[in-house]
Amino acid sequence: MRRAASPLVITCFTALFPAQAQDRGAAAGARNVAPRDGVWLSAGLRTLLGAAPGARGDATLYVSRFGGLGQRAALLELRLLPPTSGGVGLTGAYAASLLERRDGKENRAQLFRIGSIAEGQVGPMSLDGRLVAELVMPEGDRGVPRARLRARATFPAPAEGWPRPFVAEELFWEESRGFASRHRLSAGIRAIGALGGALDLDAYYQREERRGTAGFHAFVLQAIWVIGR
User: Which one, of 186, 161, 133, lies nearest residue 6 by Cα?
Assistant: First the structure.
């Protein structure tokens, strides 16, 4: 199965500013932080670490800026990918970010991630999933653990050379709010191997619903330059 760039990396960046372990922390943050709605832009540089069956991997550095949030973030992700025929692999990531608040101050945070990824094929449709554990560490506060489960289906292109449509759903478990405290629905298109094969482009709409607080909607544009493809 041909590997595609992951649009869910954008959601990893938003993860850097979680609901706090206590609901009062989340409420206070909501008063100071601009809405998440808007256009989110992300760029990445990926290098392939291996191409042998059962030994594929990559490393990707992402940088991002989110519209209404005034948020800047950087994330380094390492992956041991499933075999080309499908299966299970591993992922790990570290991220750091800076969020401008309405009161002129800035919030900093770090994120650590480890988990599994899976890929498969059902006829012309590509399926992939991810189950990860994360530790989010806001500056000056204790780490906040959580888990995320995502499933995504990528459909055949309507014509040769066209982008492929996809739809994805992601559920969160958070310490303060329990399982399915958030869910994110994403839908859009993916252009894999544009510009002679070196560029992966994603464009999609994302809607998040949250238990106990407001959600958001955003339009996401992501470009990843791949070295060695």
Answer: 186
Question: Residue 38: exposed, middle, or buried by beta-carbon count in 10 A (0-12, 13-18, 19+)?
Answer: middle
Q: What is the amino acid identity at position 155?
A: F
Q: Other C-beta atoms within 10 Å of 39: how many?
A: 12
- Facing residues of 188 across strands? 166, 204
What is the per-residue pLDDT across 108-159, written as a single tens digit (0 to 9) for each?
899 999 999 999 999 999 999 999 999 999 877 788 899 999 999 999 999 9
From the list 72, 69, 73, the residue with the least C-alpha distance to 34 is 69
Using CA atoms, how far apart are residues 183 and 74, in angstroms rounded to an integer? 23
Tens digit of pLDDT for each residue in 25-79? 333 333 344 456 788 899 999 999 876 655 789 999 999 987 666 678 999 999 9
Under 8 Å between Cβ of 73 and 59: no
Q: Name which residue leads in pLDDT, 179 or 67.
A: 179
